[in-house]
């Protein structure tokens, strides 16, 4: 039973909460709103707050810039390759860390945490040189390689939570019934992990989908840009001329991500806390 | 990120087997290739003269600490470093203050306001960084931006005001964007930690006559201290390395030289200017700076582990 809250405190908290809501949500609403407005409405000094009478012209403009569709293909290829590889690698590593005791286990976990602290910009010069040597600049494989290392530590971390959240006693019981250890894991634990795997995969997908700085140095050729790169150059080209088109492009990139994010974030939080408390 | 002091699951009894090591091989190899090797190579590179001539096949020369000496004697590096540090602390402090404040107030809001606020925060959190940058540029646009419109309507003289021309104003816009993006994570994490504060303790303190502030200081803050530390640590790391926001705003206007932070400076030296040896030296410097800044946090976190 929470204690009753004093009235002035509640009123203050509510006012602050509403103001914070407006500040947080307004840019997202404004992006979507502007993407439906035609040139004249956008250039009207008095802003149009609701896109009544809006149309889809801006979205048509975006799809007609040939680079958009191409960038979407590149982005999809890079993110899918990244996620498939990262999930596979992270999954076996998470099983090792949460189902076995072995020498160096703690060092591995600590290393993961330390890696999380390395700023991307602190390494991208030498990553660029490395990919150049390997002839992997401007390739899907090259960008995916650095992306795998980007999402791997966090992916192992969350999957470890999901695996640890499934009590080992369940596997032991199955082994009593005559399963081998491997069979027990795949029949009992693995099905319970499926939602966690999906959530972690989606989260990693979002990270790779949004990433900008590494894409900027690896994908220097125009026909190899990812969507964030495409959007930043599209903005340059259209500086102050076609805000409607820019907002439509932003909406196309952002809305799927927002929806995915809203779907998985609750599960991610439970994954991070699972296994910690239960032991 | 959750409480780092949790134990890591309770694995079954140790069995002498090579299996766990085999399971770790793919991840370890991927990290060694994509991060470990570049880290070593970067340190090597920072002691070499590696410029445009080397790009075209001339073997790099060892120059010892020349790159570092040149950097340290260049006042521009110190200006960029100071700028980065100030930007980092202002942003991290603003993010923490707003995020923790919202989390504390969330407990006192009516249910519908709290849900509304959490929805808004989730939207801001979910926005891809480049998309949010284009939107904020549009909001701050000189001619048609809402910000100038609203300020002018309120009676200020902001018609046609250019926000990105002056460095200070440029960094103000960058700060608004960074804080807007970072607050949700802090607010949600701290709010989750607040649910762990024991209710009995709060009631007992109230019976003993502790006021709201007293309860906050003596019960709430000590309980969530580990979480606050981790979150603050992450903010400092993230805000020190801020790159995308600065780079994209620089494309939009503003003098590059006056608005470079460490991340963009490394990029412009190396990828932009072809001085890879120098850029590597700045990058090593930035990594060391990150370690120096985060060492006190990490130490106090380890101390907490020791106490628990």
From TrEMBL, chain A:
Write out the transmembrane intervals: 12-32, 74-96, 108-128, 140-163, 184-206, 243-264
Q: Which PROSITE patterns match?
A: ABC_TM1
UniProt-listed SUPFAM superfamilies: MetI-like (SSF161098)
Q: Which residues form the ABC transmembrane type-1 domain?
A: 72-264
In the record, the note on similarity to other proteins reads: Belongs to the binding-protein-dependent transport system permease family.
Q: What is this protein called?
A: ABC transporter permease subunit
Q: In which compartments does the protein localize?
A: Cell membrane
Q: Which UniProt keywords apply?
A: Cell membrane, Membrane, Transmembrane, Transmembrane helix, Transport
Q: Which domain of life is it from?
A: Bacteria
Task: Name the principal localization, coarsely classed.
Answer: membrane
Q: How does it sit in the membrane?
A: Multi-pass membrane protein
Whether Membrane counts among this entry's keywords is yes
UniProtKB/TrEMBL annotation, chain B:
From which domain of life does this come?
Answer: Bacteria
Keyword entries, A-Z:
Cell membrane, Membrane, Transmembrane, Transmembrane helix, Transport
Membrane topology term reads: Multi-pass membrane protein
Pfam families associated with the record: BPD_transp_1
Query: Where do the TM regions start and end?
Result: 21-40, 84-105, 117-139, 170-194, 219-238, 276-298
Q: Where in the cell is it found?
A: Cell membrane
SUPFAM superfamilies per record:
MetI-like
Task: State where it is primarily located.
Answer: membrane
User: Residues in domain ABC transmembrane type-1?
Assistant: 81-297
Keyword Transport found: yes
Indicate the family of this protein. Belongs to the binding-protein-dependent transport system permease family.
- Can you say what this protein is called? Sugar ABC transporter permease
The organism encoding this protein is Nocardioides conyzicola
